[in-house]
Amino acid sequence: MVKIREIFTSIQGEGPYVGYKQVFIRLCGCNLNCSYCDTDYDVSEAKEYSVDEVADICNQNLDCHSVSVTGGEPLLNIEFIKELYKKINLPIYLETNGTLYENLKEVIDYIEYISADIKIPSCTGLKPLWKEHDEFLNIASKKTVFAKVVFDEKINNIEIHKFANLCKKYGIELILQPMMNGKIPSVNSDFMQEVLDKCLKTYTKTRLIPQVHKFLEVE
Fold it and tell me: What is the pLDDT of residues 23-68, one digit of tens each?
C-alpha cells in the first residue's frame, strides 16, 4: 500500500513536455522544504492505494504520454515505483527535486523520463545542494532527463554560473522557470530575458518556459 494525495489526468504544464497528457500520481512527503512550494502533499489528506489499484487507473488511460510520478518527493517511495513499472503499459516520468541520488540508483532502470529540479538557495531558502545535484544528474543522464530551475528576482550570477555549467557537464537541457504568483510570473519579461541571456552565454541548450498550466487554469 502507498499513501497518495491524488491521482488525475491532465496536461503536463512544465518543461519540454508541456502539453502532453499524463496520468499524475502525487505522492506524500518530501525531504526538502522549499519556501515557494505550492504543492499540497499532506499525509493526513492522503488515501491508501494498492499498486494494483494505481496500475488499473494508469492502464485505463493509455492515450496518455506517460505516468508522472510526482510529489512531494517520489523517490521516498522507490519500492512503489519498481512495482508500478511492472504493472503498467505506459512509461514512468519522474518529477523530482534532484537530490536523492542513492534512491535514484535503485530505480533508474524503471524510469524513462526524468524532470530534475536544481534548487538554488536564493529562491528556495535552502542551503546549497550543488553536490547532491551533481551526483543525481550523473546517474539521471543515463535516461531522458532535463533540469529545471525555479527562480525569482533574487537569483544571482554565481548561481547562474553553477547551474548552467552543471547542465553543460552532462549535456542535458536546462529549463528556466520563473516563480509564479498565481497566474502571473513573479518577475517581468525584461528580467526573464536577462536571466536567459546570462545562461545562454555559458550553455546554449537553455530554454525559458513558465508554468503553462497556471494560466491555462488546469491542474
Answer: 999 998 888 877 666 665 566 678 999 999 999 999 999 999 999 9
SS3 for 129? coil
Q: Where are the domains of the chain?
A: 2-216
Residue 211 Cα distances to 22, 32, 36, 150, angstroms: 16, 21, 14, 10
pLDDT digits (tens, 9 = 90+) for 120-146: 999 999 899 999 999 999 999 999 999
- CATH fold of 2-216: TIM Barrel (3.20.20)
Alpha-carbon gap, residue 168 to 95, rounded angstroms? 20
Q: Report the distance separating Cα 48 and Cα 77, nearest Å.
A: 13
Side-chain half-sphere exposure of 74, counting CA atoms within 13 A: 27
Asked if residue 30 lies in contact with residue 41, where contact means CB atoms within 8 angstroms, the answer is yes
* Sequential DSSP letters for 78-115: HHHHHHHHHH-SS-EEEEE-S--HHHHHHHGGG-SEEE
Confidence of residue 176 (pLDDT cuts 50, 70, 90): very high
Strand partners, 148: 117, 175
DSSP letter, residue 143: S
